[in-house]
Amino acid sequence: MTTLPLPRNFRELAKALGTSTLYEASHLPCAVDSAIRPIWDGAFIAAPAFPLECSPGDNLSLHLAMERVPRGSVLVVGTGNFMAGYWGEVLTVAAEAAGVVGLIIDGGVRDIAAMKKRQFPVFARGISVKGTVKASAPSVGMPFNFGGAHVAMGDLVVADEDGVIIIPQAEAARTLAEGEARASKEAVMMQQLTEGSSTLELMSLTEWRSRA
Q1: How many other CB atoms are found less than 10 A from the CB of residue 12?
Q2: What's the pLDDT tens digit per position in 31-73?
Q3: What global pTM score does this model have?
Q4: Which of 25, 88, 121, 144 could form a disulfide with 43 if both were Cys (CB 3.0 to 4.6 A apart)?
Q5: Which residues participate in the annotated binding site?
Q6: Residues making up the binding site for Mg(2+)
Q7: Tens digits of per-residue pLDDT, 163-185?
């Protein structure tokens, strides 16, 4: 399969469409566990993935990733859902210097005020003051299953207040195009609703009027 290139404005396009529209347009099992949420209101990410896995309570993989991650990437970090403060202000500053544009992690983070002040987008399972050791690195840059969605280097990650999705690189351009088409169709529908049409009529569900 030939992978179509992403449009140059893919970040702006993904932000305008949002994760819900893109998820529906993808027709793929690309939604991440809904427990992974933004740590500050308004956080948004649309970037190629750089996947890595940490051992429970160990963030060595994150430090190794800072020397390997391509600029413009988002870190997608598996921890086995272990709650600890894998990430804080020091790694945020290091990430910004390395050109990292955000973090998605199924574990915990800390130094929330600092990340909010710096406007560094982070989506995490929770917040934890507990520190971590640096003794093992299961994988850095290798694909794995993250919160119910497969992630590999270069996949398109989009995260906003509705949730996190991971679109395979080969399907990203198609999904964005179908997302635009879906958004245009919904815009017409919403105009028709303001003019008096009903959702039952517009979605061809009128037969249910007599059944309910």
Answers
A1: 11
A2: 999 999 999 999 999 999 999 999 999 999 999 999 999 999 9
A3: 0.94
A4: 121
A5: 88-91, 110-111
A6: 111
A7: 999 999 999 999 999 999 999 99
